[in-house]
Write a structure and sequence with these properties.
about 150 residues, mainly beta, about 50% strand, extended
């Protein structure tokens, strides 16, 4: 699910029994082990500003993990950024275990933000992470990379 029902805190021991999605609101019926009593929770837009969202992409390799690449540019698109909105874009390459920030965008009313400097070079695989807070809603991202190295046998 994109958002927790209880802010950034997960409901523990929950067994979902049914849900309904209506627009941007989710209603969930669940039980909490070992209690068989049904509980109903509903997301609400008031809580979104206090919660954060994390998106992690698949690992990209431009079709071949044996070739080296350079990231040339990347853009994150959003709904118009609210006053308290923030988008942080990060990446990790190859065997890295943590994400490194590329940029933080807090520009009010903006619908896209791009970076062309400070980008990773000489990697074989890359993965992206988009963190959003303050009601910022990412809608997509795009990037361009250049293959810079070949296999040792051509």
């Amino acid at each position: 699910m994109e958002r927790f029902f209880n802010g950034d805190t997960a409901i523990t021991n929950a067994r979902p029994r049914g849900f309904q999605l209506l627009g941007d609101f989710m209603t969930l019926a669940y039980t909490q082990d070992p209690d068989p009593t049904f509980v109903i929770a509903r997301t609400n837009s008031d809580g979104y500003s206090a919660t954060s969202s994390t998106y992690e992409s698949v690992v990209f390799n431009a079709g071949d993990s044996s070739k080296k690449k350079d990231l040339l540019g990347i853009t994150v698109t959003t709904e118009p950024m609210p006053a308290a909105g923030q988008i942080i874009l990060g990446y990790k390459t190859d065997a890295q275990t943590s994400f490194t920030a590329i940029f933080t965008d807090t520009t009010d009313n903006q619908i896209s933000f791009s970076a062309i400097t400070g980008l990773p070079k000489d990697y074989k695989e890359i993965q992206f992470q988009i963190l959003s807070t303050g009601n910022a809603v990412p809608t997509g991202f795009s990037f361009r990379e250049k293959i810079t190295g070949k296999r040792i046998y051509g």
